[in-house]
Amino acid sequence: MPTPGCIAAEALHKSIVKPLISPHCDHYRATRVLHQTLLKAVREVTGKEVEFIQ
């Protein structure tokens, strides 16, 4: 069962990737850094890999 933190992280992830953006634009590259930070934070808090991205 996902924790409330993982549920919130998944919602944040979906809000970031939902818009259709070109993988070649600067905005897309900037979101990659944001995703890495989000995944690291979830790993540190839960001690687990993020299931919704695997």
Count of helix runs: 2
The main β sheet shows up as: none
Let me know the number of strands: 0
Terminal CA distance: 16 Å
* DSSP strand content: under 5%
Radius of gyration: 12 Å
Instruction: Summarize the helix and strand pattern as letters.
Output: HH
Q: What do the pLDDT scores average to?
A: 76
The best one-word shape is elongated
Kindly name the structural category: mainly alpha
Helix % is 55-70%
Low-confidence stretches: none
How would you describe this protein?
This protein is mostly helical. Helix content is 65%, strand content 0%. The chain contains 2 helices and no strands. The protein has helices at 4-17, 26-46. Helix 1 packs antiparallel against helix 2. The mean pLDDT is 76.
Fold blueprint:
Blueprint: H1 4-17, H2 26-46
Summary keywords:
about 55 residues; mainly alpha; about 65% helix
Can you summarize this structure?
This protein has 54 residues and is mostly helical. It is 65% helix and 0% strand. The chain has helices spanning 4-17, 26-46.
